[in-house]
Amino acid sequence: MRIGIVAHTGKPAAMALSRELTAALNERGVEPQLVLSPEGDNLAQLDLAIVLGGDGTLLNTARLASRWQVPVFGVNVGHLGFLTEVETDGLMPALDRLLAGDYSLEERMLISAAVQREGREIARHLALNDFVITRGTFARIIEFSIFADGQHVTDYVGDGVIIATPTGSTAYSLAAGGPIVEPLLDAICITPICPHSLAGRSVVTRPEVQVQVRLNRASESVMLTIDGQDGFPLMTGDQVTIERAEQRALFVRLGDRGFFQVLHSRLRMPQMGGGSREA
Questions:
Q1: Using an 8 Å Cβ cutoff, are 228 and 132 in contact?
Q2: Alpha carbon distances (Å) from 227 to 14, 30, 72, 162, 169
Q3: Which residues in the chain belong to E strands, given as ranges?
Q4: What is the DSSP secondary structure assignment for residue 257, as one 8-state letter?
Q5: What is the DSSP letter of 32?
Q6: Residue 202 phi/psi, 5° resolution?
Q7: 86-87/72-76 β-pairing
Q8: Residue 47 belongs to what H/E stretch?
Q9: What pTM was computed for the model?
Q10: Distance from C-alpha of 15 to C-alpha of 67, rounded to nearest angstrom
Q11: pLDDT averaged over the chain?
Q12: How many helices and strands, by DSSP H and E, does the chain display?
């Protein structure tokens, strides 16, 4: 197998584990490729990417690897680990199963966003968790309209809106009052952030629906954030069209724990959150 190791370079524990993993693979006759910065084509030739970090590292790698349909295996060197498959002490026991192909692949829905300004597309992005349109710290509230396949759904006045996948439903969307959606479903969740109305509620649509967000009034500091990691500035009059992406992210699963088992353990923790805000 052509295996890549993607380690969070800002976490000494992840870098130390990458050296331990490299030695263990060498002992088994495998020469892994260390991918310090997953970008471009450095994931294209891999059969498997082992990601050492938190959900943020895994989100970024899975999103990039989806272009070539390279599966990712997450090892939690963070805190929450909604997306990772094993904790650090479970990596070595899982290694022989990975090399023997004793695992299954789980597909997760991705969404794409196209930003139109004055009738022209000026940017396009891909997300595994969510797209968030939000105001800056000192900016005024945002006025925006939501459309689904061209049908006017509602108007919001507030701090912003989250457009999430089922994978992202346990991240920022959940913290903003959105629903928990089983991640193997295909759906699009629309959740307002601090709407200035008691009628502001989340909406869940079919995956085939195109969701349009039109900024009716926004200050210069309004941003489109991708998986909590990258940002693109928006202006009044911009329209963001979000839809299901053609490609899907692939996760390696050993079958030792399911989503609801992970959810149960995480909901019992003092703090709550999802993948997009943790590295």
A1: yes
A2: 21, 33, 17, 10, 12
A3: 3-7, 33-35, 48-53, 72-76, 86-87, 104-117, 120-127, 130-134, 142-148, 151-158, 160-164, 188-193, 203-205, 211-217, 223-226, 230-233, 239-253
A4: S
A5: P
A6: -70, 150
A7: parallel
A8: none
A9: 0.89
A10: 26
A11: 90
A12: 5, 17
Q: Check: CB of residue 274 under 8 Å from CB of residue 168.
A: yes
55 is catalytic: yes
Angstrom distances, CA of residue 40 to CA of 37, 45, 63, 70, 94: 9, 11, 12, 14, 28
Mutual angle of helices 91-99 and 12-27, in 10-degree steps? 40
**DSSP state at residue 82:** S
Q: What is the pLDDT of residues 29-73, one digit of tens each?
A: 999 999 988 776 789 999 999 999 988 899 999 999 999 999 999
Domain extent listing, the chain = 3-103+254-267, 110-246
pLDDT averages per 10-residue partition of the chain, 279 residues = 93 95 96 84 92 92 95 87 86 94 96 96 97 83 94 92 96 93 95 84 95 88 93 95 97 82 67 45
Amino acid at 194: C
Give the active site residue among 41, 47, 55, 230.
55
d(CA 7, CA 43): 13
What does the block give as tokens for 244?
A: 């299901």
User: Encoding tokens for residue 266?
Assistant: 């995480």
Q: Class of the 3-103+254-267 domain?
A: alpha beta
Question: Is 212 within 8 Å of 239 (Cβ atoms)?
Answer: yes
Task: Look up the CATH number of domain 110-246.
Answer: 2.60.200.30
209 Cβ neighbours under 8 A, 6+ residues apart = 148, 149, 188, 243
